[in-house]
Amino acid sequence: MNPYIPHTKKDIEEMLKVVGLPDVEALFSDIPEEVRRRFQPLGLPPRDEIWVSRYIAGLAERSPGRRLVPFLGAGLYDHYVPPVVGHILSRAEFYTAYTPYQPEISQGTLTWMFEYQTMVCELTGMEVANSSMYDGATALAEAVYMAARAVGGKTVLVPKSLHPHVREVLATYAWAAGLKIVDVPFNESGQLELREIPEGTCALIVQEPNFFGVVEDLSGLKERLGKAFLIVYVNPIALGVLEPPGNFGADVVVGEGQVLGLPLSFGGPLLGLFATRMEYLRRMPGRLSGRTVDAEGKEGYVMAFQTREQHIRREQATSNICTNSALCALAAAVYLAALGPEGLARVALLSMERAHALAERIFSVPGFRPAFSGPFLYEFAVACEDPEAAVRKLRAAGIAVASPSLLKKCGVENAFLVAVTEKRTQEELDLFVRALSQRG
Amino acid sequence: MPTIFDRGQKGRRALALPELSRPEEEILRAIPAGMRRKNPPRLPEVSQPELVRHYTALARLNYGVDTGFYPLGSCTMKYNPKLHEDLARLPGFTDLHPLLPEEEIQGALSLLWELSEHLKGIAGMPGITLQPAAGAHGELTGMFLIKRYFEDRGEHLKRQKILLPDSAHGTNPASAAMAGFRVVSIPSDRRGMVDLAALKENLDETVAGIMLTVPNTLGIFEEDILEITELVHGVGGLCYFDGANLNAFLGRARPGDMGADIFHFNLHKTFSTPHGGGGPGAGPLAVAEPLVPYLPVPEIVKEGEKFRLRYDKPKSIGRVHPYFGNFLVMVKALAYILTLGDEGMREVSGAAVLAANYLRVRLKTTYKLPYDRLCKHEFVLSGEGLAPGIRTLDIAKRLIDYGFHPPTIYFPLIVREALMIEPTETEPKEVLDAFCEAMLKIAEEARTNPELLREAPHRAPVRRLDEARAVRQPILRYPFLENPPKTQ
């Protein structure tokens, strides 16, 4: 009945004969009878492919939000994903393989991992990058764990302008490790205001651009932090136009890599970027591909510094991470290779020019003004008297923006976030302004 | 093999992007001078055909389940049905933003809810979270739950110990340590099972819990499972079950009936979603009643015909994922469960365990089988004593020459020169036979022509690689000739 099991009746009989058992049931005699007796099935009949295909496709049709024009970002962005990415990801030699434990037959994976690591270093200005974490949020949490171990303090400075969901994940991890989160406020520009650095600080986190879309000024921060880590949580598309955090002395750069060739996917799978400086190589989590040679002197790649990892070091490992987001990292590598340096900047610039054009028009509508005065790229916060009503008006016109409740979590009242990517058309921008200008 | 950085020429591009409507400098003025990027990243500059050929060439250097037999123990490298790949690419899933209001995402929430119900039924446990992105993430979440549970009872200061059989996956001790627990290793007995006497010695009021893999990494079912969980519960501890090996009893037994308090699934193992070269996977976590209040938020609940997100759970550990977990992986897992139904799932474990025992019996006269008893979905041989100077690594590399992916090697740690073999249920008997023949032939070669093994692989894209050198002289990113990186 199971379409994926190839054993015929004859195969089963022959195998049972070799094993010396009368039937398949006898293979499970070691499970306590009491346990087997308690078993209850789900009550599910088997289904054919056509049925399953229609059923799942039916579920896919039942989310009307997919058809709204997304001016919704807030951490995940509707950038253009070139078909070439999906086609390369469809190569079964990539997606049906596992961790490259046997390097001689995994050179494909190990080579793209090496390329990806290089690209992440280039984007971030860092010296070493791993081959992926689950997502930006857990990458950040692991960076904080690394900082706490390396520096020794228990206090983490977290701006109010950090993505609220990312902050919630971090808070879970921080609680478990006995770390204390101290809020860093923001000023009128929307940028963080680092007043004092308490004793026992192990890290300051800066989101770049921050959750409000505002560009943070990274200069001078590391100098003030001393040995405490400067951890920068980036949007890698923005690094097409922003100076890399490595040039400001960042100790760890993490970020959400969804924007690099991955669809929104209802929030998963995602891609956690993780890069640091060589001095912290042995403290970093995750898999690393390194170049070496084979027995004949031919260049090749292996998983390097595995002694950091759980399968070797067990409770002394730098992290418990095993399965990560490999295929998503491949997507990012292909995406970045397809764009090249100019294309990456272009995606950021196209998004910026559309965002700034839209912002200008929104802020000329009576009652709408910028929530912050700081510089932004392609996401910005719009302040108004009744943001819920504005969001409702937009939705009625077929437009999605981020819920004002997200900004509220950061302590920003009466505002909502608008994100614009290179995919948004002039018509969509017009529609947005028209909807917002409507009375009532 | 050249890297993508060795291909292409300056100025080449693979995509036609829209033109800017204003001069670049004008747009860039929005960014304060100090924050503007000065030097562009050194990304590849290639045409689309070059790009595609490069990655096609890389793909051909790889070995996947679609290439051939991949008996990597504890990883359950079963076939990944193609229907699932298409379903996970439906725009109704891929183009959906997770921060849309509830009424706009009912289809996706309904899918998650339905999968949750099935997984709860499979585990025989009443609570679930789909957030963990992988098995180890599930373990860590489970450790967080244990921590919160004892914190709530005011016992967290004394309950600092997590017990672990010495056969545990490396992620188990790493997850426990990451959550701040002290790990205590429990030896295995001669049967390859938890040594009950040693377990009892370590049981007291300081135990937070035990992490068990069922069946264990030797592929052996803990026959004393009910006694073990009862003993741990007896001192107030909790029982975490690592579900990596669920393929061994799917459709026949439930961890909830064995005394599990927390159980993680690996959707990329048991539920056929592809491993992706190392991810993404998904590690949903099922829990027993006492742990339900601590599960991550939001909880997906069904009210009438509507699905809602519930956040008002004051005892929750909070989020462990910024959204809902690896959604597209879950689409595939649900399709798999629906296709199989109860009977198909029962057949999975039947066929997987039969295949493993068949290989075990056929190979045990030639290879050392340190724990010789009925196995479940996998078993562990030892390469020790096959021939003088021959190591398990040599056997593994020689298997490559015969066209097979080697088994997991040097794990579990309690077997010297371990070869951990998991055939899964999706291999035809002819393939299992061919693998046996290759293993037997290799044993013969080990005696007659040991160099053949020591120098293997001979038929792979590269010969044996120098792993020590990659650490001694680390090259972890491309060494550009112009403007080389400052440190490398």
CATH H-tier superfamily of the largest domain in chain A? Type I PLP-dependent aspartate aminotransferase-like (Major domain)
Q: Termini of chain A, distance in Å?
A: 60 Å
Q: What average pLDDT do the residues of chain A reach?
A: 97
Q: Which class of secondary structure composition applies to the elements of chain A?
A: alpha/beta
Percentage of β-strand residues of chain A? 5-15%
User: Largest sheet of chain A, order of strands side by side?
Assistant: 2-8-7-6-5-3-4
Supply Rg of chain B: 25 Å
- CATH class designation of the largest domain in chain B: Alpha Beta
How would you summarize the topology of this molecule?
The complex is a heterodimer of chains A (440) and B (488).
Chain A lengths: L8 H11 L13 H6 L10 H13 L7 E2 L12 H7 L2 H4 L11 H18 L3 E2 L6 H16 L3 E5 L4 H13 L3 E5 L16 E8 L12 H5 L3 E6 L17 E5 L15 E5 L12 E5 L5 E5 L6 H4 L12 H37 L6 E2 L8 E5 L3 H10 L2 E2 L3 H6 L5 E5 L6 H12 L3
Parallel strand pairs in A: 1-13, 3-4, 3-5, 5-6, 6-7
Antiparallel strand pairs in A: 2-8, 7-8, 9-10, 11-12, 12-14
Chain B lengths: L23 H5 L19 H12 L22 H6 L3 H4 L11 H18 L3 E3 L5 H18 L8 E5 L5 H8 L3 E5 L9 H7 L4 E7 L11 H10 L3 E5 L19 E3 L20 E3 L11 E5 L2 E5 L16 H37 L15 E4 L9 H10 L6 E2 L8 E4 L7 H20 L1 H5 L12 H6 L16
Helix pairs in contact in B: 5-10, 6-7, 10-12
Write a brief structural summary.
The complex is a heterodimer of chains A (440) and B (488). Chain A is an alpha/beta fold and 440 residues long.
